[in-house]
Amino acid sequence: MEGVDHLAHERDKAQFDVNDMKIVWAGSREAFEVSDRMARLVANDPAFRKDNRVHLTRKELFKNTLRKAAYAWKRIIELKLTEEEAGRLRFFVDEPAYTDLHWGMFVPFLKGQGTEEQLRKWLPLAYKMQIIGCYAQTELGHGSNVQGLETTATFDPKTDEFVIHSPTLTSSKWWPGGLGKASTHAVVFARLITNGRDYGVHGFIVQIRSLDDHSVLPGITIGDIGMKFGNGAYNTMDNGVMHFDHVRIPRDQLLMRFSQVTKEGKYVQSDVPRQLVYGTMVYVRKTIVIDASNALSRAVCIATRYSAVRRQFGSQDGVETQVINYKTQQSRLFPLLASAYAFRFVGEWLQWLYTDVTKRLATNDFSTLPEAHACTAGLKSITTAATADGIEECRKLCGGHGYLCSSGLPELFAVYVPACTYEGDNVVLLLQVARFLVKTVSQLVSWKKPVGTTAYMGRLQHLMESTCKVQKSEDWLNPSIVLEVFEARSARMSVECAKRLSKFTNQEEGFQELSPSLVEAAVAHCQLIIVSKFIEKLQGDIPGQGVKEQLQKLCSIYALYTLHKHLGDFLSTSTITPKQGSLADDQLRSLYSQVRPNAIALVDAFNYTDHYLGSILGRYDGNVYPNLYNEAWKDPMNESSVPDGYHEYIKPMLKQQLRNSRL
Amino acid sequence: MEGVDHLAHERDKAQFDVNDMKIVWAGSREAFEVSDRMARLVANDPAFRKDNRVHLTRKELFKNTLRKAAYAWKRIIELKLTEEEAGRLRFFVDEPAYTDLHWGMFVPFLKGQGTEEQLRKWLPLAYKMQIIGCYAQTELGHGSNVQGLETTATFDPKTDEFVIHSPTLTSSKWWPGGLGKASTHAVVFARLITNGRDYGVHGFIVQIRSLDDHSVLPGITIGDIGMKFGNGAYNTMDNGVMHFDHVRIPRDQLLMRFSQVTKEGKYVQSDVPRQLVYGTMVYVRKTIVIDASNALSRAVCIATRYSAVRRQFGSQDGVETQVINYKTQQSRLFPLLASAYAFRFVGEWLQWLYTDVTKRLATNDFSTLPEAHACTAGLKSITTAATADGIEECRKLCGGHGYLCSSGLPELFAVYVPACTYEGDNVVLLLQVARFLVKTVSQLVSWKKPVGTTAYMGRLQHLMESTCKVQKSEDWLNPSIVLEVFEARSARMSVECAKRLSKFTNQEEGFQELSPSLVEAAVAHCQLIIVSKFIEKLQGDIPGQGVKEQLQKLCSIYALYTLHKHLGDFLSTSTITPKQGSLADDQLRSLYSQVRPNAIALVDAFNYTDHYLGSILGRYDGNVYPNLYNEAWKDPMNESSVPDGYHEYIKPMLKQQLRNSRL
Ligand SMILES: Cc1cc2nc3c(=O)[nH]c(=O)nc-3n(C[C@H](O)[C@H](O)[C@H](O)COP(=O)(O)OP(=O)(O)OC[C@H]3O[C@@H](n4cnc5c(N)ncnc54)[C@H](O)[C@@H]3O)c2cc1C
Ligand SMILES: Cc1cc2nc3c(=O)[nH]c(=O)nc-3n(C[C@H](O)[C@H](O)[C@H](O)COP(=O)(O)OP(=O)(O)OC[C@H]3O[C@@H](n4cnc5c(N)ncnc54)[C@H](O)[C@@H]3O)c2cc1C
């Protein structure tokens, strides 16, 4: 960040204290400090350089990731980093690696499903990375439908072992990250069969590679599944394929917290409530929502800074207009900026929800689980979908230059999009939310009071009849009006679905038939949650000069932009009138103008280093053009001026001698 | 296509003659035959293999493209292919190359802007590829705003030459395809300066490389601008950067059809009407719209076939449900199928428009030009935007496997998206359409009758007052009802914008302020064009058993899906009632069910070879799993089971010896 700051005039305009906003974004002063320290540690260490990624072959790329992962672990040990610090360090290294699955799936899953004894055996190994674990659930033929998995684990009482087997080609494990090359162990999901009976899918700890020489163990076939979207992107990960030919593991490698098989082959359920598994799920999805805010804010930071650098048309006093001044540019960019903040705060709330669920589970209180489960599923779905689309929109907002890898945006998109698919396909998840909503509505007549994020359904009568009180555009700044409008829209859509469903004699058939509308009702419900958590956040104490004011504007932008985008919902449920919709648009335009002078500072508040951003267009100092220019020359294509292949393929053509040449 | 056809049962279900549909899709029997012949020629020639693209380094990839381009040219000569055949052959080679710019931009531009004499000199060279040309307009600092280009061409009467110069870093040419490595010549856009006066941007023919040894000529600096989105994708193209240091070219290399500079340095406009340049623009954009239907249909073909292969959940009789049977899957996929056909037919109509415009220009009739210009700009914008989004949606429709390069979808997306930016940034184009619409509305009071695609504005009175006559869901199948609804929505949105604009004292300020709404009005207008051209097509004779019926369904799907997606527009302009909107949804669901049995045949009608599709998921025979499995093993990562880097980066970690290792 040395040299001239080409965006200084933008930073001077800000009407709030950017340092205070940084703390709000990070969640707390402590979180900010840890994050800031780790970001700089990574950025200043040439071992973590990443700008050469797009030029490496797959094998070089992968080897380089192995190096970084080992080096990061070495630094974590040397610097005696806490778990939080280590997590942030890995985050800023910004390169998908087998360690993500080891720490993010293998360890939490062990913790969730292992018995005390199993944890005593496996956790220390995993914590010290004496073993490397991955999460092997998906198969070539089955992903979403976990119950349809084909791999079998048949108990053999003669040897006290399970026999893990892949009976078909489609039963090959397919996709697990870290499986292809790095992992020594896997949690393998397989149908537990004992005494000829199939007890459904269970998790098993299976050693897959030798701890001596890393060779694949007998009976197991493992490979990498090949290139994925983008260049570097997720190709640093060894997503793998695995086939078992009657592989034997000791009986005690079934994860036994919830059920066990005795020496004799008897299947026994433990008295630990199975609902506990939901805890892990809430944890994983909370992480995904926070990741969405990270990825979106990163893209928005790049597009915002570049939009202030880029000038096009409309010359005043000799210089052209910064494209960020165009209302169309603002109307595409600022809602994404607002969404990044909105997702941040809903992620923060999910953190709270996770703690709350964990506490309740400890006291066998399962009452909030279905609601927590539905709401995390829905939030995962809509935040990842909006983020994927938002990154691509940010790329387009950068015009032609956004298409260069040096903009950082193509790779960010390619590495991000699978979040829409893994941990639950987004549409499949929304269908789950829809089922929950329909059930909630149907139970309203009974004694069951809707809880948590569905509490508003308890005021159904009111919401069905209420009319929106907006008379002038400023009324749209009133949080309680906005909230009620979102509640009414969501409630009415759910009720409408329930009504139409009730006309079907076969409920399941009706659900299938109406599923597109049901998905829309689920989206409406989840958008309400995001709006309401943003509003809640603003009701609390938020220190810092001008900080709360800016967040209020962003909250309004998120809400009114969502309203505009889904105007059909609001009008068709008669929640608002066309006139009120048009007033919302007026207010939105006015908000864009108010945010404009603060835009650069609002993305500075993410506190991203240039290393982490990995984008010439998004450079902190705005010094885009000379750096774009210099970067181009580094491409291997520029090693020679006359290209490889000129003599064989260009010269004979120009000289009209193609006919005789061998191609 | 040998072996078992796993989709035969799907093909048997079709209720129309797929061979007849192939002809409709191709445009005519002749077009079909040429296309089919060329597709097979390419598919059966191993020289055009492309499945190894993702594993090549940039330099290898580029060299391989040079080889293919030369080989294709050789075949074109050997087989004495017609221009049409050659074009189709290059299309099926399916790899962006410098030849695209040579044939697609350099040659048409010469033709459009050169004098007879210039054409006599340059065209034969270009036609025989004795020179390779590119189109060098965009600069590092300027793209959309062509008038802002900085490169200068200053006339020096002493030597009768123009001096081409890049006065700043930002004036470097940046982006031109084919410039980086292949081209020997370029049409360079520069500010024509003579006698100290700046006459604005003009095109010049500049030789940039030696025809002897391909070295860059003195005073010129040329390089490749580096990696772009994706893996293979557009990285086969040598988009370039070029800087001039006072490079001299003969005076007669100014393209002089419209204006000349005399020996003495006098700037003289010719009497050729400048409007002729629009002809080229209509031509290029027509091509882009047809390309949109190609790219979208390709993605839809892959996703549709795979959706019929993929099974997940809902086991009946032991086998699970094909995911194509889920209504959510249909509601995401079938509108894209319908859009592919819709874009096809609007492209066909643009072909007609181009002929019409050309004829009129020949007789100095410029009356339809502004309208033709606006409508091609708008159609380019909305078809490319919908196609880019649609490809990514198709990828998501394939679940996890869509993320593999072997699905073909990631590369298709990466290679396609710049179409949203080049030949006019999509938002900038829509703003042009909006300006035209506002002008049309403001002239309605005068004697000027709106023509062509704006003719409906002539019935403004009626459209402002008309009410939608839909009473039951089948009414939505009536083309005249649908058409009027789209006309009314568009007219009302334009009028509303014009009304709000009129309240501003400064019209330009008003336009800027209201630009987001203006863009929406432009979109509405363009969607109307697409709907109306689809309906027009269906009014003509369409032979083939069941063919017209299927197209009618697709037309209704396109219209009703668009209506659903933009429901807010239709409701806020009171064009339809919420009840009517809901009836449209009912009809849409029913149409999905009707299309379902025909889905596979409808994508077969595109007549794509497996080579062209380049997708394991989209294979004609549906034999997905064994091929996915086998493909994975070909990845270089699988050359060894223990990965490169194990000894340095994995072993020391597992053995707890990291501390001592040098990383
Ligand atoms: C980058 C990446 C990393 C991954 N990492 C891992 C890992 O570490 N471990 C692991 O085990 N797995 C992993 N996976 C696999 C991932 O979990 C699955 O891809 C995911 O669960 C989606 O399942 P699927 O691929 O079977 O999609 P499918 O379910 O086949 O989806 C195909 C289409 O069918 C639709 N569909 C499916 N069911 C229904 C329904 N009931 N109703 C309506 N529509 C339906 C979907 O919406 C989608 O449009 C990874 C995947 C990716 C892409
Ligand atoms: C793959 C590829 C190939 C190309 N090939 C060639 C080639 O062969 N020859 C050549 O000369 N060029 C080529 N180009 C360049 C291309 O034509 C330009 O990138 C394109 O014209 C867009 O201009 P820009 O990049 O300056 O975008 P910008 O105009 O800088 O766009 C940035 C943002 O500003 C917005 N914006 C700009 N002006 C306005 C306005 N007035 N009102 C509201 N918003 C505005 C845009 O909507 C966009 O969001 C290529 C580009 C690509 C990506």
In short:
Two copies of one chain form a homodimer. Chain A is α+β, with helices and mostly antiparallel strands and 663 residues long. Chain A has helices at residues 8-13, 18-26, 29-43, 58-78, 83-93, 98-113, 116-127, 277-309, 327-362, 369-397, 409-416, 426-442, 460-465, 479-502, 507-513, 515-539, 547-565, 567-572, 578-595, 599-604, 610-613, 624-633, 646-654; strands at 133-136, 152-156, 161-165, 173-174, 185-194, 197-207, 220-224, 240-244, 247-250, 259-261, 267-269.
Give a description of the structure.
The structure is a homodimer of 663-residue chains. The first copy, chain A, is an alpha+beta fold and 663 residues long. In chain A, strands 1, 2, 3, 5, 6 and 9 form a six-stranded mixed beta sheet that branches. In chain A, strands 4-8-7 form a three-stranded antiparallel beta sheet, with no helix packed on it. The first copy, chain A, is built from 23 helices and eleven strands. In chain A, α6 (98-113) runs antiparallel to α7 (116-127), α9 (327-362) crosses α17 and α12 packs across α14. The longest helix of chain A is centred in the middle third of the chain and has 36 residues, at 327-362. Chains A and B meet through α4, β7, α9, α10 and α11 of A and α4, β7, α9, α10 and α11 of B. The complex binds flavin-adenine dinucleotide (2 copies). One flavin-adenine dinucleotide sits between chains B (101, 135-138, 143-144, 175-177, 234, 239, 418, 421-422, 425, 427-428, 431) and A (310, 312-313, 323, 326, 328-329, 397, 399-401, 403).
